[in-house]
Amino acid sequence: MRRSIPLPHWQCGSGSAPCEKIHRFYFVLLSVKRTTSHSLRARLLGLLLLAVVGTVALQATIAYQTALAEADAIFDYQMQQTAQSLRAAMPLALLQLQSPGAAAPDDENFNFIVQVWSANGLALFHSGARAVLPPPVELGFSSASGKGVRYRVYALQTRAFVIQVAQDMATRRDMASALALRTVW
């Protein structure tokens, strides 16, 4: 359907070919004029708004990634301190009171898994039945799997035994994400 556009004062008679061409040309000019009628102020304001939104999004992304990295470092430090406190506070006699596999009553609410190995590789203690990690291969931080779950593991060697402290990577990632979102938002 064709719109009726008022022609200039030099209107042609109906049905002539040159008048149809003039009519089409005039219609194209009117439509171009409508699309370019934005002022310079409106365009600059739109670009400024786009730049501000882009900067805020970039800043939020950087803050989120930084908060994730800091939460990961805090969790590593917490694992390291747990192993250090066990080394200082747990004599070998106390470790033998609980046999491997006996779960602590509050096991589900505890985010860490603690295992203690003798110097010759015998499992002396583990904090719960929900996961049994393989013997420590390397000291310090590493990753390991137990019952199909990935863990971040810290292993500390003392004179008499090796202490392993592990945390489920999915739980760790969820807690870090929640912390990072609270930091950004």
Mean pLDDT: 77
Element order: H for helix, E for strand: HHHEEEEEH
Any idea what the radius of gyration is? 35 Å
Strand residues, percent: 15-25%
The tally of helices reads 4
Please tally the β strands and state the result.
Answer: 5
Distance between the termini: 52 Å
Main beta sheet strand tally, sense and closure: 5 strands, antiparallel
Structural class: alpha+beta
Uncertain residue segments: 100-106
Strand order of the largest sheet: 2-1-5-4-3
Summarize the SSE layout with pairings:
Layout: H1 17-35, H2 40-89, H3 92-95, E1 112-118, E2 123-126, E3 140-146, E4 149-157, E5 161-168, H4 169-184
Antiparallel strand pairs: 1-2, 1-5, 3-4, 4-5
Helix pairs in contact: 2-4
Question: Could you write a compact summary of the structure shown?
Answer:
The chain has 185 residues and is of the alpha+beta class.
Give a structural overview.
The chain is 48% helix and 19% strand. The protein is built from four helices and five strands, in the order H-H-H-E-E-E-E-E-H. The chain has helices spanning 17-35, 40-89, 92-95, 169-184, and strands at residues 112-118, 123-126, 140-146, 149-157, 161-168. It has a five-stranded antiparallel sheet. A hairpin with a 2-residue loop joins strand 3 and strand 4 (149-157).
Throw out a few tags for this protein:
alpha+beta, 4 helices, rod-shaped, single chain, 185 residues, five-stranded antiparallel β-sheet
